[in-house]
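note to self: dont lose this again. the chain is below, predicted strucutre after it. 215 aa total, dont forget to put it in the shared folder this time
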Amino acid sequence: MKFDKKTLLLYAITDRSWLDGQTLYEQVEQALQGGATFLQLREKHLDDDAFLQLAHEIKVLTDRFRIPFVINDNVDVAIACNADGVHVGQTDMYSQNVRQKIGPDKILGVSTQTVEQAVEAEKNGADYLGVGAMFATATKEGATLVTVERLKEICRAVSIPVVAIGGINASNVLRLKGSGIAGISVISAIFAQPDIFRATKQLYDLAKQTVAMGK
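---
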């Protein structure tokens, strides 16, 4: 899939912490029906075989909805399931090595918190950056917060699109207006909600307002 920064508008990251009797497939389907434009499969506790099986299942959905599908951290699983790409953090495989491994046509996202990291990631072949945490988040305890001003600095420093992440929800997302981001990335604001479809739809509308105000 050719990368289009418009698909970053509402970037959903999976988490099986809130399945509550549903399958992840069912929850992802609700999020995609609600308007999620990009999906990252994030699994920290599955072995590679189970991770790959789940990735194949979720890719059926993202193919149906024609949105990009990337794997968090695990390059081998991303390649094996023919995902559209991979997202890596600063403590994961060096982004330049990831680009060499996945080739020129796959999507590469890199988590950054500073202008220096952002510039380095772009130089090493990143297609987009995830910047945060913007607000306190229970999903990643102890995460260092990034100010909105630094987010703006990062957006200005690179030519690739930036997605804000970390503690973003319907009540605070508009605080990111004017920052220059291409979209927002959320976990609990979608998957921890009792009505995933409705929560996603609301976030999609708010994300459009936020990004439009940032131009």
